[in-house]
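Incident log, support desk, overnight shift.

02:14 A customer reports that sequence design results differ from what the structure should imply. Their input is reproduced verbatim below. On-call engineer (initials T.W.) acknowledged and began investigating.
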């Protein structure tokens, strides 16, 4: 699939994420191949550095949590910060990240 087609697909997915996750503070979609940013919004808008950092972190996260089979899908990684949580998942095409506020107790 051409980069322009992937860009359009990512923009459509991003629009759905923004609608389906009302409390999100930002979202990004990057290439699962090289970590390049395809689409972003909110606090993660144009955060190419964050997209690349997330992409580079995923193989290490798989190793740390003991996913032995390289073909086994990674369901979700959550990075918890003092003020927010970053939820990350991926498929064969894209890496998805959504920034959300921490739940209030």
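02:41 Re-run completed on a clean worker. Output:
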């Amino acid at each position: 699939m051409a980069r322009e087609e992937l860009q359009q697909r990512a923009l459509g997915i991003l629009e759905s994420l923004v609608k389906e996750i009302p409390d999100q503070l930002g979202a990004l979609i990057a290439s699962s191949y090289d970590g390049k940013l395809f689409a972003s919004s909110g606090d993660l808008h144009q955060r190419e550095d964050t997209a690349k950092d997330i992409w580079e972190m995923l193989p290490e996260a798989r190793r740390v949590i003991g996913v032995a089979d390289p073909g086994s899908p990674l369901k979700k990684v959550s990075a918890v910060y003092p003020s927010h949580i970053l939820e990350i998942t991926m498929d064969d095409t894209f890496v998805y990240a959504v920034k959300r506020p921490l739940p209030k107790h």
